Amino acid sequence: MIADRSIVRAAHIILASSSPRRVDILNNVLGLQAEVIPSTFPEDLDKSRFTPAEYVAENAKQKALEVYSRQRAKGETRSLIVGADTVVVRDGAILEKPTSKDHAVQMLESLSGRSHTVITGVALVYAPSTAHGAADEAPHVHTFVETTSVTFAPISPESIGAYVESGEPSG
């Protein structure tokens, strides 16, 4: 638990994502003024090698490490890099962000009137300092996962269509 948010607000924080929701949480809800540098990590991990919780934690870690590596190459190692990943899990299968409007409709129809789990992994990556203030080679990496059970009421095709047309499922 962070007892003094002023210390966190004084840190240079980089969000390794362009997710509007994540930017809003860090900057507007928490008042942290995080800089946004989207990760270029391809998110192509083999899902069969991970539990869903391990999968989001590893994706979040790899996103943050990719941005950390770019910052380090520029000689910038004083930032806290925040990476995150979220998936929906239904019947044990990981459902990622829909790839098209048709895919979004299909996914929402499959969740309508059912329960599923939303899992978010977060990774915090930063350079440790030596006694002389220089950054060590390997960064510190801390990950954590939050799991939420969600139950949808039945959703009408009209409501699904309106929601998909809003663009929200692809954000």
List keywords for this structure.
single chain, 171 residues, alpha/beta, Maf protein, six-stranded mixed sheet, 5 helices, 6 strands, 34% helix, elongated
Précis, in short:
With 171 residues, this protein is α/β, with parallel strands linked by helices. The chain contains 5 helices and 6 strands, in the order αβαβαββαββα. Helix 4 packs across helix 5.
Describe the structure.
The chain has 171 residues and is of the alpha/beta class. Helices cover 34% and strands 25% of the residues. It has helices at 5-10, 20-29, 52-73, 101-111, 157-165, and strands spanning 13-15, 35-36, 80-90, 93-95, 115-126, 140-151. Strands 1, 2, 3, 4, 5 and 6 form a six-stranded mixed sheet that branches. α4 crosses α5. The longest helix has 22 residues, at 52-73. The model has no long low-confidence stretch (mean pLDDT 88).
Looking at the overall shape, the CATH architecture is Alpha-Beta Complex
Query: How big is the Rg?
Result: 18 Å
- State the shape: elongated
SS-based class: alpha/beta
Work out the helicity level.
Answer: 25-40%
Number of domains: 1
Largest sheet composition = 6 strands, mixed
H and E order: HEHEHEEHEEH
- Helix tally? 5
What is the mean pLDDT?
88
